[in-house]
Amino acid sequence: MADIIFVLLTGFVTGMTTIVFGFGGGFVVVPLVYHLVSASGEQPGQAMHIAVATSTAVMIFTAGYATFAQWRSGNLLRETLVPLIFYIGMGAVLGAFASSLLADGTVRLLFVIYILVTIADCLFRPGFLVKPVRAVLSPSTLLIGGPLIGVIATLLGVGGSVMTVPLLRRHGFEMRHCVSSANALSIPVAVVGALMYVGLGWREMTGPHYLGYVNLALLGQLVTSGVVGTVVARKWLPKVNDRLHARIYVLLLILVLIAIGV
Predict the structure, then answer these.
(1) Stated pTM of the model
(2) Cβ-based burial of 193 (10 A; exposed 0-12, middle 13-18, buried ≥19)
């Protein structure tokens, strides 16, 4: 019973971070599912794959709902989505396939390294904490950055927000536009990644709670409470100014690093 309550609470927090930070759930769900599956002793050697796959499936619903809500609020900008979304989708296919070739511990190590690099980048390279002048995404950024975001996002189950938010931020967009776009850009990663993980884990996993690498029981609980968290965040969380928003974003990344590293 305690585990169910903890999962529901995590799903609720996931919904809130999706709206406020564009995380799509990955940075909250991956550490949770990893620790739960590891502690249960089921599916030995697959905990991180299950965590990434389940997180990716959760993002279809949380990021999808958040994108719809932010579109209605007028926070989505076309120039932050097109054509970047197509390049990210292509990279997502490669990321899911690459994950199936890596050992569970390797995926977890890459997750930790990814967070560390992102935190350092946000803190020490100019252009994130203080918004620069608006600039257009260059063709090289789209051709190289887009597929790279898709690969890493699907490989680690994080939706790409920790690359898309800093990327858009450094091109002069306000945090609310960066976050809204991160949710929308997470949708192709989530859909492609979830389908790939279902197929890649079809013969690897056993038990009624699994569809490929996706844990269906956890998925249902996380999505239900996640949607509730999204609604609560939209209606009752106070708005913060742009600079404070960026600082809280980095702080949350540090907390995620601690969670997955324990």
Answers:
(1) 0.77
(2) buried
